[in-house]
Design a protein that fits this description.
- The protein is α+β, with helices and mostly antiparallel strands.
- Helices cover about 30% and strands about 20% of the residues.
- Helix 4 packs across helix 11, helix 6 runs antiparallel to helix 7 and helix 7 packs antiparallel against helix 8.
- The termini are close together.
- Keywords: Isomerase, tRNA processing.
Amino acid sequence: MDKEILFITNTPPLKGKIKQRYSDFIVEEVTREGICEVQRYNKPLEKRNFEKMRIPEKPENKEHLILEMEKINTDTNTAIALISRGINTSKKRIGYAGLKDKRGITAQRISIYQPDIKKIENFGVKGIELRNPKWGERIELGELQGNNFTITIRDISETKEEIEKIVQQFVFECGGGIPNYFGNQRFGGKRQITHRVGKLLLLQDFKSAIELYLTETYEEEKPNLKNARINLAKTMDYSKALKEFPFEARTERAILNHLVQHPNDYANAFSVLPKKMRYLFTHAYQSYLFNKMIKERIKILGKKALTPQEGDILEEGEVTALLPGYESEFAKGIQGEIEQKILQEENMELKNFKVDRIAEISSQGSRKKISLKPQNMYLDKIGEDEFNEGKKYATIKFYLTKGNYATTIMQELIKEEIF
């Protein structure tokens, strides 16, 4: 993400630590079936349920087993891969509505097509619980309404009264909306690479995209993986790299394996990744451009940035910005000028978003509201922080509709970037 973040609320920063502990970031998926609640990993070991799951008898007209999946410190793609291997079924048979954060405790529903009942009942992987089985229809990506968030900020120096005053004022100001930035997890978290790879793919520089994806490191990366990336950057020896990259680097190993078998076939190397993952690269680059457009609008319009101006394209009365694609049309007025300026700065054209060689990374384009308004937001509790002596913690709860980021809310509250 562009390092410069522009905030719009007037509250002083509530400085503290976000996601210091996994239980500080709880996400509960909301669908038409209701709330999928976190019930296990937020409890001490002695209070967790260890009863073996029993699968009900399958009705004749139902082929998909619906389960609640609760996970801790595991991203959704990794969890699905672990379940796939654990029950010996294809990942394509597993459906889910949305991706959830890695660092935290999250609960969501998944579906599995014609699973082996015994293997499901005996499934056991550290950090993942499957429960509440029933038979139903496949869960497709996007079939959620939103998510409930319970977020604890730690290491706060302010007094209880100061915390209450800041949060109450912040909740009030959020009612008018805050900049709807995409969160850093959209761009690969601390590695900040997904959007950069996406741009190279759209420019059809497949070799550079592959090399960047395989070799880019970040400071806190695990030493064995970091060293493997560094060695590959020096040698570009894919056979040697395949031996050095650790087993948990599944996507990198899949790409390396393809390149060992098909040297220089960089375009098709990305095709070994799951389809849902492949188009995330384009989405990440579109999101990066969207964030730049919001920042440019705030620079020009200041506090009026989120209110409609002449030439804006509105959705439900709210201003939108461009997620560029090959069929996109620019807004008029100031917003249209911003959208064209950002693409020019990036040396990109709308036609670049159509890639015939990897059709699934192409995008027609769309628009997204630039204002984010959390619902049912309130300060749940304040207490003495047992993990940071002499400091306090504050727990905040709120609901966001799908496609929006809790870290965007937290960044605006603490007035600094969150990875």
